[in-house]
Amino acid sequence: MQSSYILSGGLVIDPANGVETQRDVAIHAGTIVPADSVAGADVIDVNGLAITPGLIDLHVHLRDPGQTHKEDLVTGTRAAAAGGFTCVVAMPNTSPPVDCPAVLEDILSRAGTGGVVRVLQTATLSVGRAGAQLTDAGGLKAAGAIALTDDGSCLQSAGLMLSALEAARDAGLPVIEHCEDESVSRRGVMNAGATAASLGVAGQPHISEDLIVARDIVLAQATGWGVHMQHISTAGAVDLVRWAQSCGIPVTAEAAPHHLCLTELACADFGADAKMNPPLRRAADRDAVVRGLQDGTICALATDHAPHSADEKAGGLRGGPFGIIGLEAALPICLTELHHSGVLGLSDFIAKFTVGPRAVLKLPYGTLSPGCPADVTILDLDREHVLDVSSFHSRSRNCPYDGRRCRGKVVGTIVEGKPVFSELPQLVSEGIA
Ligand code: DOR
Ligand code: ZN
C-alpha cells in the first residue's frame, strides 16, 4: 500500500462535519488530507460502498491479561477490525485487574505491538475492584489510562463514589459506570418478572440499575464531574439521564446492541448466550432505550463484547457467566435492526459509533476532517448475508445471533492509513485476511 491513496466514489458519511454525500477521501502518511492535495496517488474505487470514520467501541472486554483462553489482545483486536472498529476501549476487569500503572503499561505496550486496532485502556476505580479503597487516579492517568470504571460491578458506597469523582476530577480522568445496586440485584441471573418466574430462575429488578443512575446523577451534579453511564437498559435509566441532561448535569449514556435488538424472552431460547449484565429487559424497556437513542439521550452504541469459554457457558442461565461477544455482530445486527428498520437515519446511526464516543472521551478519532488520523471503515450497506459465528475472529463463541439474516456488512477497516481488514480485492489488508 502506497503512503498516499484516494478512496474514490463512495458515499461518505461523516456526521461530525454534517457530510452525507458521494465524494473522495484522500489519505497521506496515515492522515486524512484534502482530496486535491495528493496528485498522482493510487485511486481505489469504492463506488457503491459507504465510507465512514473508523468506528469506536466504548466497551469491550479483551480478557488480557489473565483470561486469554477467552480472548487476548491479538484475537480481540482482530475481531474488532473484522467488525469495522478502528478503536476499542478495553475494560479493566482483567486478572489481575488494571488497578496500577504496571498492569496498564504492560497492556498498552503489548497492544501497541500485537494489536491491529487502537486499544484505549481503562483502569479501575477501586483497588482490586473490591470497592473499598480508591486507586491512584493521577498515577493511572500519567500511565495512560483513558477513563476509570469498576465495570462488571460498581462502587456500592455513595461516599466512596463521591470521593472517586473528586479524585477523577482533580486528575482530569473521565468516569464511566456500570450501574447496579447489588443489594437489589442480589444474585439475579436475568431480568426479574414473569419470564424469570416461568424459567424458574432468580431475577434482578430494573430498579437496581435505576438507583445507581439516580445516585450518580446527584453525585455528578454535586462534584461538577461527568459520569458516563454504561450499557443502560431500563426505561427508568433513560428517563433519569434525559432529565439530568435537560438540567445541564454532565452525564452521558451508551446502549448495547443486545438491549436494543433482544428482550428477556431470548433467555428462554438462548439460555446462557442471552445472559448478560445488565440483563435483557422487557419490550417496554427496549422501546424506551430505542427512543433514548433516537432523541439523543443515548449518544453511543457500545458492544460490551464479553467473551467467555464454552465450558463456562455450559453452566447455563443459572450458572454460566454474564456476557456475549459483540464486535463482529454489532454492525450487521444494528444496521438491520436500527437503520434499515427505520429507527435511525444513516448519519445518526454512524454518529452513535463515531461522534458520540468521540465526545464522551474527548478522542481525536471519529471524524474524517483533514488532519485527523486516517481511521476509516468501509461498509456495504445493503449486502444481505447470514451471520456465521464459527467464522468470527474472536476466540469465543458465546453469541445468540448465529444464523441471523442481516442486511449490511463491514468490508474494509483502515487504521492510520493501513488497511487491517478487507474483503475488497482493490484494498489489500496488511492486518488480517
Ligand atoms: O455481561 C457482562 N459481562 N456484563 C458485565 O458487566 C461484565 C461482563 C464481563 O466481564 O463478562
Ligand atoms: Zn458492565
Write the layout of secondary structure elements.
Blueprint: E1 4-14, E2 19-28, E3 31-33, E4 42-45, E5 50-53, E6 55-60, H1 73-82, E7 85-90, H2 101-114, E8 118-121, H3 137-142, H4 158-171, E9 175-177, H5 182-185, E10 190-191, H6 194-199, E11 203-204, H7 207-223, E12 227-229, H8 235-246, E13 251-255, H9 257-261, H10 266-270, H11 283-294, E14 300-301, H12 310-313, H13 316-319, H14 330-339, H15 346-351, H16 355-361, E15 376-386, E16 405-415, E17 418-422
Parallel strand pairs: 1-4, 1-5, 6-7, 7-8, 9-12, 10-11, 12-13, 13-14
Antiparallel strand pairs: 1-2, 2-3, 5-15, 15-16, 16-17
The chain binds (4S)-2,6-dioxohexahydropyrimidine-4-carboxylic acid and zinc ion (ZN).
Total count of strands: 17
Would you identify the CATH H-level superfamily of the largest domain? Answer: Metal-dependent hydrolases
Overall pLDDT level:
98
CATH-defined topology of the largest domain: TIM Barrel
Q: State the helicity in percent bands.
A: 25-40%
Give the DSSP E fraction (strand runs of 2 or more residues). 15-25%
Computed structural class = alpha/beta
Bound molecules: (4S)-2,6-dioxohexahydropyrimidine-4-carboxylic acid, zinc ion
Tell me, briefly, the overall form: globular
**Domain module count:** 2
Report, as a whole number of angstroms, the end-to-end distance.
15 Å
CATH architecture of the largest domain: Alpha-Beta Barrel
Reading off the top of the CATH hierarchy, the class of the largest domain is best stated as Alpha Beta
Cα Rg: 21 Å
The major pleated sheet works out as: 8 strands, mixed
pLDDT < 50 stretches: none
